């Protein structure tokens, strides 16, 4: 075995617990702790030493001093050793020796705050005032940035009633330009002795050394507490002028407004808040907005509160558009906010800032939201601002910005043209639409132009525009259909028919089925059964689709009734009854002709597309529905039912991409009674077996 095997053999074997049942006597954690404390060994305590006479005391002091001296000699870098030594000498009442220890300690640790502090406190306890002063002077001179020394020194002098000495200490301290608490403590000292003039002089020096909001605010509060409101207001005004470029100026505005609020000058406070919001940067105004909101809730009316809410939301939108100026949804929200506020100048400013952010790429998907900024801007100028000239300029600027060579927006052209039409400037409207056709010939623009001219009664212009549209896009079937419908609505049936003929002769069409259907409906509405039948025959020469056959058969089965577009139900019923008198429109004639179309269609599908069984089933079902709708004397539903196929389940091979067979799948097939290929070899074998069995039974009999 290897080294790992040897190590494994030397490892102690884990003990398995055979009986895992609970013990009959249970023990709690409390009992375990109690037993541990009872069995704990007693801690050794040093015996107390009792001193009987002066000799023993001298011996004890000698031993202790020797121990302390040995320690401070070997661990002179440890301040704690010196402090213990000096404290022990102080307890023995030997102040000269204690002072000697402290002085020796300061030689090694002159910058240790606890040594200086406890040295001075020892002198103060011993009421050695001059010694204490000496220690504090030396401490403050050595470590002038330790505020504790100055505070304790001043407290000692004030306790002794030496106010002049306190002022001298403060003046010496202020030469080092300490932090705010030192100045404020000096002011508090003068306030305790009612020396407001001296305190005011200190504040003047204070704000020069610390020109920030905290210092100025303390000065203003001091004047307010002294009862001089005008002086406090002057301090706030001087602070605003002095700190106008500081980052925390918003806090000063808030304090100023609160001061005016405490003076019951509500309008002054509101003016301060508004001045601050108008002059502060967006990132500095958030807290001011919150305070202004609280102020308006307490002292304002509904309009004031709404103004504050609008201002707060305006601040939020400014932050968002600063982060992403191409976020047009934020611009939409911002614009709606300004529109609801009713300030036209600010609304225009936001619109101008929004439309200045042109999408970086000339792709239409990036421009779709951006264009609606222009559209909303134009609608605002027209409907809200009532400025027609500015609306016109907005539309012109928008059309100049769009790169028409790559893409365009029909909506902008149409809205601009309709605006000019509302301003009764028809020539300008036509010029805009003509320019649109030249730069961006789109179907929507042609349609809008035609609608305008048709409403004005300019039929010749409509025809000209339709012709121009067909020159641009001759494949557009909807344009051909609309052109023909225009002629039909004007009573020009032959012109409409000629347009349809031109359309169906085009080599390429985008939706030919729509065009043919419109042409057929056109002839049907004119009562031209023969022309409609000829159209179906021409369509069947181009396509043998089953839906064409079904539509053809339905047409033959339906009476052709010519009525006006606005005819009522009675007129339609009368026209239908009159059509029954026609030989070609009688039911017997129609059902026989329609049945012939179904039979012809079934044969055509069977011969041209033998595998298109789904289409044949659709045709038979339509034929059956037709026969079921006829009266019993005309119906041949039984013959159609006999032609219906059987639905059978079969299997076929499934191959992979390389052509190898990987399995079989089931599918449903239709077996037609009159299909010669309906009998598969398997069915033929079954029929032969059945015939043999039948013959065998006959022979046995």
Automatic annotation (TrEMBL):
Domain Pre-mRNA-splicing factor Syf1-like N-terminal HAT-repeats: 67-212, 315-473
InterPro entries linked: HAT (IPR003107), HAT_Syf1-like_N (IPR055433), HAT_Syf1_CNRKL1_C (IPR055430), Syf1-like (IPR045075), TPR-like_helical_dom_sf (IPR011990)
Superkingdom of origin organism: Eukaryota
One Pfam family it belongs to: HAT_Syf1_CNRKL1_N
Transmembrane parts of this sequence: none
SMART domains named in the record: HAT
Principal subcellular localisation of the protein: nucleus
GO cellular component, one term: U2-type catalytic step 2 spliceosome
Alphabetically ordered keywords of this record: mRNA processing, mRNA splicing, Nucleus, Repeat, Spliceosome
GO biological process, one term: spliceosomal complex assembly
Location within or outside the cell: Nucleus
Keyword set includes Repeat: yes
Domain Pre-mRNA-splicing factor Syf1/CRNKL1-like C-terminal HAT-repeats: 231-309
PANTHER family, A to Z: CROOKED NECK-LIKE PROTEIN 1 (PTHR11246:SF3), PRE-MRNA SPLICING FACTOR (PTHR11246)
Known function: Involved in pre-mRNA splicing and cell cycle progression. Required for the spliceosome assembly and initiation of the DNA replication.
Family: Belongs to the crooked-neck family.
Name listed for the protein in its UniProt record: Suppressor of forked domain-containing protein
């Amino acid at each position: 075995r290897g080294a790992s095997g040897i190590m494994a053999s030397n490892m102690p074997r884990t003990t398995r617990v055979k009986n895992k049942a609970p013990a009959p006597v249970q023990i709690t954690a409390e009992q375990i702790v109690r037993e541990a404390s009872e069995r704990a060994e007693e801690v050794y305590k040093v015996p107390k030493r009792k001193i009987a006479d002066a000799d023993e005391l001298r011996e004890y002091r000698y031993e202790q001093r020797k121990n302390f001296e040995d320690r401070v000699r070997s661990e002179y870098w440890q301040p704690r050793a010196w402090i213990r030594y000096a404290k022990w000498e102080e307890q023995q009442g030997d102040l000269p020796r204690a002072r000697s220890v402290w002085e020796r300690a300061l030689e090694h640790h002159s910058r240790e705050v606890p040594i200086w502090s406890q040295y001075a406190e020892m002198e103060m306890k011993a009421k050695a005032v001059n010694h204490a002063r000496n220690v504090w002077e030396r401490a403050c001179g050595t470590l002038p940035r330790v505020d504790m020394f100055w505070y304790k020194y001043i407290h000692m002098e004030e306790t002794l009633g030496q106010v002049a000495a306190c002022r001298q200490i403060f003046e010496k301290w202020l030469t080092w330009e300490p932090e705010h608490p030192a100045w404020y403590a000096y002011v508090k000292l003068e306030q305790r002795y009612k020396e407001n003039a001296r305190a005011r002089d200190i504040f003047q020096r204070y704000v020069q050394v610390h020109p920030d909001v905290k210092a100025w605010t303390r000065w203003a509060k001091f004047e307010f507490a002294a009862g001089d409101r005008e002086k406090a207001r002057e301090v706030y005004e001087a602070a605003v002028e002095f700190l106008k470029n500081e980052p925390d100026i918003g806090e000063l505005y808030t304090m100023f407004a609160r001061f005016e609020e405490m003076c019951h000058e509500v309008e002054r406070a509101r003016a301060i808040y508004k001045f601050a919001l108008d002059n502060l940067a967006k990132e500095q105004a958030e807290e001011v907005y919150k305070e202004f909101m609280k102020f308006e809730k307490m002292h304002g009316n509904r309009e004031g509160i709404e103004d504050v809410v609008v201002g707060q939301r305006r601040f939020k939108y400014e932050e968002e558009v600063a982060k992403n100026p191409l976020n047009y949804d934020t611009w939409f929200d911002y614009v709606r906010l300004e529109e609801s506020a009713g300030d036209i100048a600010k609304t225009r400013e936001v619109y101008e800032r929004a439309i200045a952010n042109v999408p970086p790429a000339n792709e239409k998907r990036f421009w779709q939201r951006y264009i609606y900024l222009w559209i909303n801007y134009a609608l605002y100028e027209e409907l809200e601002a009532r400025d027609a000239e500015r609306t016109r300029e907005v539309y012109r600027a928008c059309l100049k910005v769009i790169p028409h060579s790559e893409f365009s927006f029909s909506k902008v052209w149409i809205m601009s043209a309709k605006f000019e039409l509302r301003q009764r400037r028809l020539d300008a409207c036509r010029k805009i639409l003509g320019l649109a056709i030249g730069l961006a010939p789109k179907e929507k623009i042609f349609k809008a132009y035609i609608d305008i001219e048709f409403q004005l009664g300019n039929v010749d212009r409509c025809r000209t525009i339709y012709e121009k549209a067909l020159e641009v896009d001759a494949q557009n079937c909807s344009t051909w259909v609309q052109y023909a419908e225009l002629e039909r609505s004007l009573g020009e049936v032959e012109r409409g028919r000629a347009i349809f003929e031109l359309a169906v002769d085009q080599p390429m069409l985008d939706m030919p089925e729509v065009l043919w259907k419109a042409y057929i409906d056109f002839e049907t509405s004119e009562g031209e059964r023969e022309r409609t039948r000829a159209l179906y025959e021409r369509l069947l020469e181009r396509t043998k689709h089953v839906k064409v056959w079904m539509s053809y058969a339905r047409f033959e089965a339906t009476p052709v009734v010519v009525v006006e577009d606005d005819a009522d139900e009675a007129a339609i019923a009368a026209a239908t009854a009159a059509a029954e008198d026609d030989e070609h429109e009688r039911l017997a004639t129609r059902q026989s002709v329609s049945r012939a179309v179904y039979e012809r269609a079934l044969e055509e599908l069977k011969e041209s597309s033998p595998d298109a069984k789904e289409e044949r089933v659709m045709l038979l079902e339509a034929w059956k529905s037709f026969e079921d709708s006829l009266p019993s004397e005309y119906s041949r539903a039984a013959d159609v039912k006999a032609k219906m196929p059987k639905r059978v389940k079969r299997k076929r091979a499934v191959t992979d991409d390389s052509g190898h067979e990987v399995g079989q799948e089931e599918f449903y097939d239709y077996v037609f009674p009159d299909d010669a290929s309906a009998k598969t070899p398997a069915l033929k074998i079954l029929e032969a077996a059945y015939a043999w069995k039948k013959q065998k039974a006959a022979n046995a009999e």
